[in-house]
């Protein structure tokens, strides 16, 4: 079911409070500005694109909000190791969490929504070009519908889908490489300096964090699948249209090449012949046809 942009606006205008690793709020982040920019994409998107946009804002952004405020807020404060050596806990935390999940997901959301701005920019460029053409040619338009996915806009839309799917795949790969999978162990071993020996470190709320991380991974995979479906739909529709144009051109060319000349007798003069007739009967039919032609000429 495709959710409308109005519902997305109500959910996103509440804003997001991104929490730093030290447990302090960095700043209030209002997603309504980004949502207002991307809401116009719905007018130029297919059904797959609308579902993708709804999934990004309703599922991924809202889960990002909940994870940032409730689960990942104690990321560094509640990370403990069984040692009192100064600096050991910080070094181990930096080794286990090279980059915060929150910041990685925030970058991912920014990157996957930026390609949609390419489509909006291209449509705005077309509209400005059409207005200029209309002013110079006294009311005639250059584009019947500037938002119609034809020509360069079709390619821009297709490239934006490739970028969105590519960014999602890239961030999933980065997350997998950094954390060696999509799992958060309850216990981690650390033997880096200045730790006196191999120490045990514990992550707070590992089960909750794992659930949220898996949810974000699954939602990313679904968004990638929707992008691929939309690409297949666009390319298939384009191929079908080109084949139809080619077929129509071939029919028109065939009709022009086999057009009857003015010297050919009208089809009403031809008589249907029974294929079972013998040669003698066929010759009689020919004679009868010649006789009718002579009578017509005499008249």
TrEMBL record:
User: Per UniProt, what is the membrane topology?
Assistant: Multi-pass membrane protein
Location (main, coarse): other
Biological classification of the source: Eukaryota, Metazoa, Chordata, Craniata, Vertebrata
Family, as annotated:
Belongs to the connexin family.
- What does the UniProt record say this protein does? One gap junction consists of a cluster of closely packed pairs of transmembrane channels, the connexons, through which materials of low MW diffuse from one cell to a neighboring cell.
List the protein's name.
Gap junction protein
Q: In what residue span(s) does the Connexin cysteine-rich domain sit? A: 167-234
| GO CC term, one of those recorded | connexin complex
Q: Which GO terms describe its biological process?
A: cell-cell signaling
Q: Which domain of life is it from?
A: Eukaryota
Q: Does the keyword Nucleus apply?
A: no
**Transmembrane stretches, start-end:** 51-69, 104-123, 154-176, 211-236
